[in-house]
Amino acid sequence: MTTYGGFQPVFCTIVPPHVLDRLARNADPVLAGPARRTLQRDAFERTRRGLTTVIGAPTVVPPADAEPEKPRRTVHDARHGTDLPGRRVRGEGEEPGRDATVNRAYAGLGATFEHFLKAYRRNSVDGDGLPLKATVHYDREYNNAFWNGEQMVFGDGDGEIFLDFTIALDVIGHELTHGVTQHTANLTYYGQPGALNESVSDVFGSLVKQYALGQTAAEADWLIGAGLLAPRVTGEALRSLRAPGTAYDDDVLGKDPQPATMEEFVRTGRDNGGVHINSGIPNHAFHLLATALGGHAWERAGQIWYDVLTGGELAQDALFADFATLTLKAARERYGDAEELEAVRKAWEQVGVRTL
């Protein structure tokens, strides 16, 4: 395991607090009730994550017969409770069962593992073959999915606003990428470094889906959470890398608040300083780079981002300008003074982030 600046895993959810806050204030108890319970559960899990960080998480020792560079997946069923990990229902190499949620979680863990291994030669989220564990059917009408520093957890959604959180492969890729960040740059989860933390997860979450589907940058939808929103919601997904601020515009959820450029940067003390909001800016920069370069986005654009994340120079408290500057350095070191370098420079200029 490689970490920089100390090991400080954080509790990361896919649905931002500002979305759940708005739902919790709705006059309809059918909508407000699940949102309030989700916020309460998230607060509890966040506190538990903090305590685990203080006392130390249990050490995971790979089994003696573990195959190198092969995933080691287990899926557990919480059976609508909150004790983790729950009852084991599927292990590595076991045949799929009747529960589609279990099967999607298992497949999503595998797709994420394969993407990082094949595209970047990274053996699981820690680079050292960490077993991948997931729990499904967590709590009742739980409107979220999260990485708690040790495993993935999926709610079933309330059926009114959110559907089963295993539906979207990019959500699984997003949350597991928080594990990759945890074991590499370990970006502080507040303000601009926190927004970078979220953006990196959005970027690689989207790339996991693109890799699995064999899509080029031009063919990809660049959405995070497509398929999660129930039919009554006016929107496509939780976030859009192509056009931040356009993922949803709904009378219940409100309008997607993500900015696409620094001119629209949101200053707020909520959501850990707007980590799920201002992540739209580096998200958009990556999309501009990937589409300018064309082809498969995980190859050149994704490689540059991965080099920065894992290179050891990205500080825990890095600002957008720091990250952007390192992407220029990474592009030059890997590709020289070629089109990749100019495309990186132009992408950051377009979103208003100055490079140093």
Descriptors for this entry?
two-stranded antiparallel sheet; 9% strand; globular; single chain; 356 residues; alpha+beta; six-stranded mixed sheet
Structure, explained:
Helix 7 (280-293) packs across helix 8. A hairpin with a 3-residue loop joins strand 9 (249-250) and strand 10. By secondary structure, the chain is of the alpha+beta class. It is built from ten helices and ten strands. The radius of gyration is 19 Å and the shape is globular. The longest helix has 27 residues, at 29-55. The strands form three sheets. Strands 1-5-6-4-2-3 form a six-stranded mixed beta sheet, covered by helices on one side.
Helix-strand blueprint:
Elements: E1 12-13, H1 17-24, H2 29-55, E2 73-77, E3 87-91, H3 100-120, E4 132-136, E5 145-147, E6 152-154, H4 169-182, H5 191-213, E7 223-224, E8 239-240, E9 249-250, E10 254-255, H6 271-274, H7 280-293, H8 300-310, H9 320-335, H10 339-350
Parallel strand pairs: 2-4, 4-6
Antiparallel strand pairs: 1-5, 2-3, 5-6, 7-8, 9-10
Helix pairs in contact: 1-2, 3-4, 3-5, 4-5, 5-7, 7-8, 7-10, 8-9, 9-10
- Number of β-strand runs: 10
In what order do the strands lie side by side in the largest sheet? 1-5-6-4-2-3
Mean pLDDT: 93
Strand content: 5-15%
- The secondary-structure element order is EHHEEHEEEHHEEEEHHHHH
The largest sheet is:
6 strands, mixed
Q: Give the overall shape.
A: globular
How much helix, percentage-wise, in residues? 40-55%
What is the CA–CA distance across the termini?
Answer: 31 Å
Short description:
The chain has helices spanning 17-24, 29-55, 100-120, 169-182, 191-213, 271-274, 280-293, 300-310, 320-335, 339-350, and strands at residues 12-13, 73-77, 87-91, 132-136, 145-147, 152-154, 223-224, 239-240, 249-250, 254-255. The chain is an alpha+beta fold and 356 residues long.
